[in-house]
Design brief:
By secondary structure, this protein is of the alpha+beta class. The protein has 3 domains: 59 residues, Beta Barrel (OB fold (Dihydrolipoamide Acetyltransferase, E2P)), CATH 2.40.50; 75 residues, DNA polymerase, domain 1, CATH 1.10.150; 47 residues. The chain is built from 9 helices and 5 strands, in the order βββββααααααααα. A 5-stranded mixed beta barrel has the order 1-2-3-5-4. It is globular and about 45 Å long. It starts with a strand and ends with a helix. Pfam families: HHH_5, RuvA_C, RuvA_N.
Amino acid sequence: MIEQLRGRLILIETETITVDVQGVGYLIYCGNPYRFQEWMDEEITVYTCQHVREDAIRLYGFRYREERRLFEKMLQVSGIGPKGALAIATSEQPGNIVEAIESENEKFLVKFPGVGKKTARQMILDLQGKLGDLLPGLQDHPKTRSDAEPMPVDRSTSAHPELDEAMEALKALGYVERELNRVKPILKQEDLSTDAYIRRALQELLKL
């Protein structure tokens, strides 16, 4: 297993970064590749997890070891695959995720892409009491929020409920209001599903 890679960041795309390690470019899947943008063309360390399926072998990358460990724990939950585990582990509030599992706060957990009430309950059943050793490191994460309760989306009055859901999912991936407010007017002109809005937003964010 590749524990970490240290090299020059040479490319950022909507789902991946490429790190040049002594002339070899490693394609690494990240929850929010743009969080690495300030290190473009500089040497960085990325902590990695190699995930093998029948049809693919992928490297997933993290800024912190604790994020990687949380990712590995999430993969143990029935109903959560690498994509969902990545979004959760690299969110703005990884420490709050542990607290939500311990306090059985399903309302907080279902804000993440692909996590419904059934999966949130499974996360609690499978992981409650097993993540305590991760909490100190995750709480030191520079993007951890002090408030674990998400702002509710009023789907009864919103003209774009799918867009609102996409915005919440992007916030969970680490994007901030300032970035999202720049692309939201563009997205409002289209009528898409939540997943399609997310993909479209990522395309526009890459242009920024």
